[in-house]
Amino acid sequence: AQKITQTQPGMFVQEKEAVTLDCTYDTSDPSYGLFWYKQPSSGEMIFLIYQGSYDQQNATEGRYSLNFQKARKSANLVISASQLGDSAMYFCAMRANNNDMRFGAGTRLTVKP
Amino acid sequence: GAVVSQHPSRVICKSGTSVKIECRSLDFQATTMFWYRQFPKQSLMLMATSNEGSKATYEQGVEKDKFLINHASLTLSTLTVTSAHPEDSSFYICSALRGPGTEAFFGQGTRLTVV
Asked: How many pairs of residues across A and B have Cβ atoms under 8 Å apart?
């Protein structure tokens, strides 16, 4: 069975600083994908970044980077140079061979001016 | 990126009636579509996985007869909440896969209120 854990219900960060959102996972499948989505108050799910289990390098997309530590089964999201518009819910998700995508509990990020 | 359109975005219905929610992939053929339910301040809970032309696979605890899913074509999946009750009020959101190993594209979500 797949399990995604986000242990930070809420996080605060000062504008222009970096923040790390934690995510750990558990799966017995050797091949899987890890995703991060942003959900603003409107409810839409915005795809941020993807990391494949066989990728050798950490994924990066603009201000987003994924700190992938396979042995520890962690896939933390790092947001650099935080902006006020980054305030939202952030969900870590995993998809394994069965193609189901399952989500962690989420972390509410608040960027302070 | 690919576009998934979900309709309606909001719906209010009377208790006992049925509500149909549509999820369309506008610019790609979706091999698989997922339906999620999200309560306020909670995560997305997978309800069912639907593959075109076959019966949906429901998660444990999700009533198949209450939440009818039809994936009639590669671009359309529908979720029908039958005999809705106030406890069915929630945010329902669909996602679609273009193919294995690809990211999932989400619809805008539907906020259902049963009165």
From this structure: 50
Distance from the Cα of B85 to chain A's closest Cα (Å) equals 22
Nearest chain A residue to B2 by CA: give it.
Answer: A47
Residue B16's SS3 state is coil
Q: Rounded to 5 degrees, what are φ and ψ at A106?
A: 95, 155
Q: What is the pLDDT of residues A11-24, one digit of tens each?
A: 999 999 999 999 99
Cβ <8 Å between A101 and B46: yes
Pairing of strands B32-38, A88-95: unpaired
Contact indicator for A46, A96 with CB cutoff of 8 Å: no
Closest by Cα among A42, A41, A25 to A101 = A25
Nearest to A91 among B44, B46, B105 (CB): B44
- Per-residue b or e along B82-91, where b marks 16 or more CB atoms closer than 10 Å to that residue's CB: eebeeebbbb
- Chain A residue numbers touching B109 (CB-CB < 8 A): 43-45
CA distance linking residue A104 with residue A55, whole number of Å? 22
pLDDT per residue of chain B (115 residues) written in tens, 0 to 9: 678 999 999 999 999 999 999 999 998 898 889 999 999 889 999 999 988 778 899 999 999 999 999 888 889 999 999 999 999 999 999 999 887 667 789 999 999 999 9
Give the integer Cα–Cα distance in Å for B72 and B64. Answer: 17
